[in-house]
Structures are given as structure tokens and as C-alpha cells.
Amino acid sequence: MQVKKTLxxxxxxxxxxxxxxxxxxxxxxxxNYVDYVRASRRADAITELLKLQLAQExxxxxxxxxxxxxxxxxxxxxxxxxxxxxxxxxxxxxxxATATGAQALDTDCAAMSIxxxxxxxPAACWR
Length: 127
Known about the structure:
Layout: H1 12-63, H2 69-72, E1 81-86, E2 94-99, E3 111-115, E4 120-121
Antiparallel strand pairs: 1-2, 2-3, 3-4
């Protein structure tokens, strides 16, 4: 009498189906993940710009003019944005966050700015 041996495991076809499903899920999930990370970094930059805006207004209350970032005594830090102040005067300023490194691929929001009138550009990036 012969004993019949059965092999347990998965076939090559089953393995290929699993790989195909994982590939499809990955192709959908990865771009969404990248967009989420960029939006998260953008939100961090907006937070820093708003902190700088508050510091500018506080400085103006005390000194009757706006100041450079160095004069504000704040040091905005971000791995993905650099911050600058321009158009500084007694009644005007413009604060800008410029994307650096991997965040520079966020071309629609590569540079975000806010001024003394709370004008935010580009508007779509501030939502």
C-alpha cells in the first residue's frame, strides 16, 4: 500500500496574484502618502510664518516699525523651508517661506508669503 503525500503551500500563481494586488495597492497609496507628507510640512511652515507675523506686530508695538527676522529675536527652524523677511519698513513687511530639499518638489507652494495686511499668497496653499 502506497501512502500519498500531499504538499502544503502556495503555488506560483497564488504568489503572483498576491504580488499584483500589493503592487496595485502600493501604486494607489504611495502618491497619497507623498501628498499628505507635503501638506504636513506646508502646515508646519505656515505655523512658523504666523509666529513670525505675531512677532512682527509685537515688535512694531514697541518700536514703531517692523524688523528683520534677526531683529525679532526668533529663529524659525525647518528642515524643509527657509524663512525670510523683505519689504521691511515702518508700515510694511513681507514674510516668505521658501521650500528646500525634498519639499521643493511641491511646486505649487514652493514659496508662501504673508504681509502686514494678512495677504497670503498663493491663496490655495493657506487652506
